[in-house]
Amino acid sequence: MNLSICIDAVFHGVDTVEAMKRVKVAGYSAFEFWAWWDKDIEAIATEKQRLGLNIAAFCTKFISLVDRTQHPVFLEGLKESINAAKLLDCRFLITQSGANTGAPRTEQRETMLECLKQAAPMLEQAGITLLLEPLNEVRDHQGIFLVRSDETVDILERLSSPNVKCLFDIYHQQISEGDVITNIRQYLPYIGHFHCAGNPGRNELYSGELHYGNVFTAIQEMGYSGHIGLEYFPKDLVEKGLQYAFEC
Predict the structure, then answer these.
(1) CA–CA distances in Å: residue 92 to residues 88, 234, 235, 247, 248
(2) Is 32 considered catalytic here?
């Protein structure tokens, strides 16, 4: 199981380079983060090499995919993010849909698809995969457009690009739709990355209603070889939660 620590969550408030050191001390070989544009990416690149760590993923700029007027801004931000990914030797960028515009869902899906069709050649040429992440609108992201894995996969099927996949956040999808193992099994060919946290609370994996030992075992048995990002906010000692994730 390839686990990655989201340092902006697990080490919230800690300096980036210091958080990277803690990733290494904890025995992990990969990390990820949210925004790159508010960080010293040259320092990250240097420390990453010194520590022998990999970067599993980070976000592209948070621009709406469902607002057609924002597509040029999104594509420019994606171009900048691809350049950052090349510098950091990272092959995965994360995006979300943006807020629901109030237009019919079919229209917003078409708008998103138009933008992704423009993005796909850039990604394919760069050898980088864009991860489209549905989020829950019940608790954490009120007003977000894309919330379910089935709708995400419908868009990806129509796009048909190997460089745009789904980020299946187990925490978000437990809230949005439940039945996570069945949905992962059904949609695994379209999934390029996972996130996880306990629910409710978005804390350690041993908190809440999800049995992550079973979930991780199922993902392994399906043959998934990518990363699973630990994107939770610790309530207990950080080392305790990270050790538990290792043992799942």
Answers:
(1) 11, 25, 29, 26, 24
(2) no
**pLDDT tens string 27-57:** 999 999 999 999 999 999 999 999 999 999 9
Q: Spot the catalytic one: 47, 137, 204, 231.
A: 231
**Catalytic residue among 133, 204, 239, 247, which?**
133
- Over residues 135-183, the pLDDT tens digits come to 999 999 999 999 999 999 999 999 999 999 999 999 999 999 999 999 9
Q: What is the domain partition of the chain in residue ranges?
A: 2-247
Please give the share of the chain, as a percent, with pLDDT higher than 70: 100
Active site residue 204: no
Long-range contacts of 176-180 (CB under 8 A, 24+ apart): 176/134, 176/135, 176/136, 176/137, 176/138, 176/147, 176/148, 176/149, 177/148, 177/149, 177/150, 180/210, 180/215
- Is 2-247 a CATH 3.20.20.150 domain? yes
User: CA dihedral in degrees (164, 55, 145, 162; nearest 10)?
Assistant: 10
